Amino acid sequence: MDFRNTEPAQSDTDPADPPFSPLRLGTWPTPLEPAPRLATALGLRAEDLWIKRDDLTGLAGGGNKIRKLEWTVAGALAKGAGTLVTTGAAQSNHARLTAAAGARLGLDVVLVLPGEPPAAASGNLLLDSLLGARLVWAGDVDGEGLETRARETAEELRQAGAAPAVIPFGGSSVLGARGYREAGQELLEQCPGVRHIVVALGSGGTMAGLVAAAGARQVLGVDTGARREAVAAVHEYASALTQGALAVEELRVRGDQIGAGYGTLTPQTADALSLAARCEGVVLDPVYTGRALAGLRAAVRDGDIRPGETTVLVHTGGLPGFFGHSGIQALLG
Ligand SMILES: *Cc1c(COP(=O)(O)O)cnc(C)c1O
């Protein structure tokens, strides 16, 4: 399955001044924890490294998508929606948390996923069903085909009398990125001297919001290969949120951790998962946060991040994806 031809979503409302407030679905602020043993293992000083625990956001397994849903679902409700429709990979954390948000708010949720129903559900898929979402399997489609299927599903629901709203791929839009601008502000209050904020880059809203809060120089995105034009998406959302001149060249993105593609477990990521678990008792995931740590490790090796520079790794969640990943058994050797 290849999502890389998913174009950046259009901004769905005036980002400068949306006429509604965000919902509160998560537990804020999330903790910022020191990671001294991981720091020294990476070649940093013990006091240099912190982990922003955005895996501990509260709702249904947690993760970064809640902050974006607080805005995108508020936007959907403002338009009178009663049903949320969204897309993602079969093991999408965003789809699972959309299901959870819908449950919390008493909304119907329809998840349009690529491929065919698996013989046995695991990880996020298991939670999607538990949370009461309806799954629509779109068969063999690319990213664009999946978006089309989501729009068709919404149209079918509308004709059946429902009031659907399509939440964009990964929850990323100018509106969704506002949630991560807030997260960036929260992080700057917790760690005023931060020099590097390292985060996995998927659909782009998370990195964009952090850039809007902290500036492009402070944020290092590690591309996971989730979407083609990921950097353009970050640029679009961050520019809209800052109403300023942000050149795309200013964005710091590493493309060296994609390996054989989105969702594959790379050797560097497998090493990073072991390292975080054994140094700090922190479980990262094979698709996003493990790649972020692998990218951080590579950045220390090539001198982009140096000892003495305060660095925050954003733990964006993904634990259910760990249990849903078919290659994870390889970690046990
Ligand atoms: C979606 C996701 C990301 C990437 O966030 P984007 O806003 O899509 O770039 C990172 N980590 C986890 C665990 C995710 O589920």
From TrEMBL:
Residue intervals of the Tryptophan synthase beta chain-like PALP domain: 24-317
Enzyme class: lyase
Cofactor(s) the protein requires to work: pyridoxal 5'-phosphate
Domain of life, source organism: Bacteria
The keyword Repressor is assigned to this record: no
Designated name of the protein: D-cysteine desulfhydrase family protein
Pfam families named in the record: PALP
Family membership: Belongs to the ACC deaminase/D-cysteine desulfhydrase family.
E.C. numbers: 4.4.1.-
PANTHER family on file: 1-AMINOCYCLOPROPANE-1-CARBOXYLATE DEAMINASE-RELATED
Any one GO MF annotation of this record: lyase activity
